[in-house]
Write a structure and sequence with these properties.
The chain has 125 residues and is α/β, with parallel strands linked by helices. It has four helices and three strands. Helix 2 crosses helix 4.
Length: 125
Amino acid sequence: MTYNVDMLWISGFLAKIVFRIIRIFHLGNGYTWPGYLVSKIFPNVWSSLDSVFPKGVIFVSGTNGKTTSVKLLTHILTESGFSVTTNASGANLAHGILTSILLSVNCKGRISSDFGVFEVDELNL
């Protein structure tokens, strides 16, 4: 693996703290600000994520049907025995996708999912 485990652990920990604060104080859904904050503190966080999903990443984009397609793909992969990280919240911009990834980081600084399946806004892709 080529990603930085320490940076990923710290980024995941920070994202989880921000997410919990947002949820406790009802400041929103909590899926955008953690990714935004982590990307400001660690501008190269995206480059540390280049190989965290051993089986690959699937991006779904388009005008209609993104959410349904992601749910179907996630279901198919899960039923086939794979673990999947996804942005089920629907936060399909960069910070929302980053938050979804960081919230799945475990205490060892690793993501145990085989696949990443993400809905991506067509203008951001």
